[in-house]
Design goal:
With 592 residues, the protein is mainly α. The protein has 27 helices and no strands. GO terms for molecular function: transmembrane transporter activity.
């Protein structure tokens, strides 16, 4: 029998022949094969595949529509038996040694810079990863949002009146939740990096689910606020933990749309929970308890089941899927080789740390002081403020308009459907035009005219007119997944990415604390003053996104000018001797 090495050599030779065939097909179709597959380069290894925005946008826009000639030509070029291996720094002998995975990296034994695979193999493997890894991440986030969002449905069942709480008490509860969530972000991420997200994430879920179903026994203001704090502390860090975990399996071009589907579970949970709440809240009076108590209990127990099961369905990494209850693992040796090499060819810095390697205080401080991330932190802080208050107060606003509990829960569904659709559309649009700024500023452009309309409403406005506008406001395109992926691209290394994910989410939670206090009791029910503030912040956000665009564009142009002025020997000397790390390196280019 042929050895494994002989089989791989035969496969590589076969794929090389396929590559020649692909080049001939490309010429026949009038496409330059050299232009279709860029030559390997040592520059910007963490951003291989991110093309310069100015040069590439016109090409992407030309094939944006599925019926366009460029789009049809792209589809015609797809050959399932063609080589799918992307050019990388490992194709250049001079730079390959500089990015060789260290021995302590958990996937080093599957690293092979000469490995080649076909489009058919890669697509089949990605589908398999989607089913095994992505689907469970979706389900875990679904459980999180059931517990995080059911307070809104409980409000529709007179939770505030039953517990003798005021609107300001409700605001305080939300503020304490966000604050504790914020404070838990970085510690949670550091614990996850030390023990592994496959261990810490299930622990988090089990812990917060106990607090969630314990809300069945709420007595008043004190217990309500205490549960809000505990839920924030237990849930904080869950999202960046999962994002870091997914980055083990996906390339940076695959991650944005999957993060969009990950956050789509948020909308899916809103829809499902609206129907669940419609039924569960009818249990008011069962065993002498209010309907909202049963809502907390049932959905909290569901999360506990998901959390406990996660201990058995989350492998530590691509080459660590074997366990006592899964002796054969999920992937064979060939699939593990493809997974490891496709991810490292996309971003060689992902091998810089073991998946159970912690960070020291100096590394944390340096990551926080990384000024290259500050524009994204700034937009993370403010981008949700314009739409946050209308979303938080949607159910209360609908009740104030005279709708019943059942009608209120059902009327939240249209905005959820619109929001989920626009979020997926923006994520797709982001990758098609290769611009993070243009695809994320959409939220502000969406919100501005609607907030102006909301500001003009008075007490004589029809309740259905108000419902239509507030539904569109709360059905905003949720660009947070794109910005999380953007932040990951800008990090330029696992160390920075670990901390920056937490800092970014802390900024988002800080923004939530701000918008939780914009609508005040003395401004109800139309919140004129609050809406005026939201309009001003929206205008500020548009300017902030413009600043981020030109900030990163200017830095890239400056680095291009310096890098291109050097000889090849000078570039190689820099790569071999530089002490610059991550996005501080002159061969790194910021995505914008």
């Amino acid at each position: 029998m042929a050895s494994t090495d002989e089989k791989n050599l035969a496969r590589t030779n076969s794929l090389s022949s396929v590559a020649s065939s692909d080049a001939e097909k490309s010429k026949a179709l009038g496409v330059d094969p050299v232009a279709a597959v860029p030559a390997p380069t040592a520059a910007d290894p963490a951003a291989i595949g991110i093309r310069a925005y100015d040069a590439d946008t016109r090409l992407r826009l030309s094939s944006l529509l599925p019926w366009s000639a460029a789009s049809r030509r792209r589809k015609a070029l797809i050959d399932l038996d063609a080589i799918a291996t992307k050019p990388s720094v490992f194709d250049d002998p001079n730079s390959a040694a500089l990015y060789q995975p260290p021995p302590e990296y958990e996937n080093t034994h599957r690293f092979d810079p000469k490995a080649r695979w076909t489009v058919r193999e890669e697509r089949g493997l990605v589908r398999k990863v989607d089913l095994r890894i992505m689907f469970w991440a979706f389900l875990m986030f679904f459980a999180l949002d059931l517990d995080r969002g059911n307070l809104s449905q409980a409000n529709a069942d007179n939770l505030l009146a039953d517990l003798k709480l005021t609107t300001n008490d409700f605001n305080l509860g939300n503020t304490l939740f966000r604050l504790s969530f914020l404070l838990a972000e970085l510690p949670s991420q550091l614990i996850s990096k030390r023990v592994g997200p496959d261990v810490w994430i299930p622990c988090q879920m089990c812990l917060w689910s106990v607090v969630a179903f314990s809300q069945f026994w709420l007595k008043g203001r004190s217990t309500f606020l205490a549960c809000r704090v505990l839920l924030g502390l237990m849930q904080g860090g869950f999202i960046p933990d999962v994002v870091l975990y997914l980055s083990f399996f996906y390339t940076k071009t695959e991650l944005p749309i999957r993060l969009a589907w990950f956050w789509f579970s948020n909308y899916f949970a809103d829809i499902v929970s609206a129907f669940l709440a419609t039924g569960i809240l009818q249990m008011r009076g069962v065993a002498g308890a209010e309907g909202w108590r049963w809502l907390f209990l049932i959905e909290g127990l569901f999360t506990f089941v998901i959390g406990f099961t996660s201990f058995f369905l989350m492998p530590p990494g691509p080459t660590q899927t074997r366990a006592r209850w899964r002796p054969k693992g999920w992937f064979n040796e060939r699939e593990e080789v493809i997974m490891v090499n496709r991810v490292l060819r996309d971003d060689p810095y992902k091998s810089s740390m073991h998946n159970r390697q912690g960070l020291n205080p100096k590394q944390i401080f340096r990551a926080i002081c990384d000024w290259g991330m500050w524009p994204v932190y700034a937009v993370g802080l403010t981008h949700m403020i314009p739409v946050g208050p209308p979303q938080t107060y949607l159910t209360l606003s609908l009740r104030n308009l005279g709708f019943s509990t059942t009608e209120t829960n059902l009327l939240t569904i249209p905005s959820t459907v619109i929001g989920g659709g626009t979020m997926l559309l923006c994520a797709w649009f982001s990758e098609r035009i290769n611009s993070r700024v243009l695809s994320t500023v959409v939220l502000q452009l969406w919100a501005l005219p609607l907030l102006i309309a909301l500001y003009t409403f008075d007490k004589n406005t029809s309740q259905w007119s108000y419902f239509a506008v507030v539904t569109l406001v709360t059905g905003f395109p949720y660009v947070h997944p794109i910005q999380v992926s953007w932040m990951s691209r800008l990090s330029g290394g696992v160390r920075t990415r670990t901390v920056s994910a937490s800092v970014y989410n802390m900024c988002v939670q800080a923004g939530a604390i701000i918008y939780a206090n914009i609508y005040r009791k003395d401004d109800a029910p139309l919140y004129k003053r609050g809406n005026r503030v939201l309009i001003g912040i929206t205008c500020m956000n548009i300017a902030l996104y413009a600043f981020a665009f030109f900030f990163y564009r200017t830095i890239n142009k400056r680095r291009d000018r310096i890098w291109n002025s050097w000889t090849k020997e000078e570039q190689e000397h820099y790569l071999a001797t530089t002490k610059d790390e991550g996005n501080k390196r002159l061969d790194f280019r910021f995505a914008y």
